[in-house]
Specification:
TIM_sf; cytoplasm; 256 residues; 41% helix; gluconeogenesis; eight-stranded parallel β-sheet; Triosephosphate_isomerase; triose-phosphate isomerase activity; TIM Barrel; single chain
Length: 256
Amino acid sequence: MNKTLREAIIAGNWKMNKTRPEAKSLIEELKPMVANANCGVVICVPFTNLETALQLTQGSNIKVGAENCHFEKSGAFTGEISADMLAEMGVEYVVIGHSERRQYFGETDETVNKRTRAAIEAGLKVILCVGEMLEDRENNITEELISMQTKIALKGVTRDELKNVIIAYEPVWAIGTGKTATADQAAEVCGFIRETIAKIYDQEAANGMTIQYGGSMNAKNAAELLSKEDVDGGLIGGASLKAPDFTAIVNAANEG
């Protein structure tokens, strides 16, 4: 991390977990534990928990995000939620392009771009996910793939709008598998993403961008990962569902 240039942010991605009573219990436990954090703290929760999360985090340092949004403002899109609907509720962040959305729900680089544009236009901050499959890494095309995903996702995003984008590098082979990229592997790709941003925009924009690592970061490995210059936080899956584990990662970012 380099907190002199950019904000460190730890974001929890709850995925499809927690009923409203369970969400209430977790948030109430978490609030005092992260109250003095000197990094950004975000919880991205299922749609059904958004109202609960917004109410319970009011007045706290915890920000609330959604896990997806549609690219149209309204229409015959049964089961979808628009970015404007999220913004109207008071949601600040939204995860776009998570590998599970790409893998299970047909997300493409093009629809990720459309959702990113819609979210930014609605005034939301985007946590934009990019990452390679294991076969991509084994075929030594990680950088080519990450570059393509990043460039397509940010098509039409101005330099000024880029301030509302966080990129989360999530090697797909390390999500929910218990496998983690080494700190050096994570740093290498996060650094490459920063170089890509510098080429698309400029070095100042790249230096100011928060780039998270999102592949099975946990209480045990967070400090080492966050010690790397280009790793500015984490998009946390399973560890975000337990307040002590999530707090340990926040503390690692505080101390870094």
